[in-house]
Structures are given as structure tokens and as C-alpha cells.
Amino acid sequence: MYQQFLNHGSSQLSYMSSDELREIFGDDDKLDERIDQILKPLENEKDVIITENRTLAESNLQKEPNLIELRSRINDLSEEFRNLSENVQTKLIQLKSKSNTSDPESVLARLQACSAESEEKSDEISDDFFNSKLSIDEFLDQFKVARTQMHLRKLKAEKMQELLRRGAHHNATNSNFLPPNTGFYGAAPYPTNMPPYPMPVMRPSY
């Protein structure tokens, strides 16, 4: 970085005659003036770098409180998600009781569709935030609602799918232990494959 300024100063001195050089080196004021001329571009560049660094530092200091607040709120949201996960079992029990009056396959399909819809909504909110369409407060409020719905619906869908899989496995297992149909129960209480008895001959009476 400094080499270019040294090269520039050397090139200026190389064009001077011996008398000019003796005059400069024999006069301290002229020598200082010449040195100042050589170093002036370096001083200007140094001032520019200092100004840019000061501006960048001030900008970072202004953003730091918002970043700290955002980090804290994200931690709070993570804690809320964990608490919601602990209450999922209660929700799943309620879902199981409702599934007795609803088609399980239809319920599972609706849950999966709603979960995908909530995930798309949270992605749209994130895109709006990164595109500066939402403030930090708006982003956190909307993102919290969307992600909470997504997690609950996804957990319900996964549990519902597990219940359906267990039910199918249970039915298949029970069908293997059904007694064979021997024809014993429900049969006629008498033999049906015996030859017919001869009927008596009826004679006419006079």
C-alpha cells in the first residue's frame, strides 16, 4: 500500500537536477514541503478509511440493540414451541376421540393439507421480512402464529398417521387368529345326506 507513494516520491526526485536536490536538502523548510506533497495523497486516503470505519461502526452500534432483541425473541419463541410440544398428547387424545365420528383418512388428508399451508405461509412471512416488507415486530408476531399452527398440525398429522398404521396392523394380526369355518355352527341338527326312506303304499278302501 505504501510502496506506491514511495515510488511516486522517488520518481519526483529523479527528475531533479543536482543543484535542485542540494537546494532542497540544504533547506529544511523546502524539504518538509516536498515531503508533505509526497505524503498528502496518503493522508487523504487515511482520512477516507477512518471516516468509512467510523460510519460502519456507528451503523453496527445502531443495529446491535435490534439484533439483541431479535435474538431474545427467537429464544422465547423456541421455548414456547417446546411447551406446545409437551401439550400435544392432550390434543392428540381429543383428535382420536373425534376420529370416531369422522373418516380417519379424510381427517389425515385435511391435517396434512393444513400443515403444508401453514408452512407455505411462514415461508412467505420470512420472504417479506428479508425483503423489508415487514418490520421486526410484525415479522415476529406473524411468524409465531404461522409456525405454531404448522407444528401443531404436523404433529397431529404424524400422530394420526401412526394411529391409522397401528389400527391396520392390529386388524391384520387379529384376522390371523380367527377360527376356521368348519360348518359346525349353524348346521342343521339332523343329517342331510341320508338316502330317503321308502314311502308306504296307500291302498284304496272299498
UniProtKB/TrEMBL annotation:
GO terms for cellular component: ESCRT I complex; late endosome membrane. Residues 85-174 form the VPS37 C-terminal domain. SUPFAM superfamilies: Endosomal sorting complex assembly domain. Its main location: membrane. The keyword Transmembrane helix does not apply. Residues 67-94 form a coiled coil. GO terms for biological process: protein targeting to membrane; protein targeting to vacuole; ubiquitin-dependent protein catabolic process via the multivesicular body sorting pathway. Belongs to the VPS37 family. This is VPS37 C-terminal domain-containing protein.
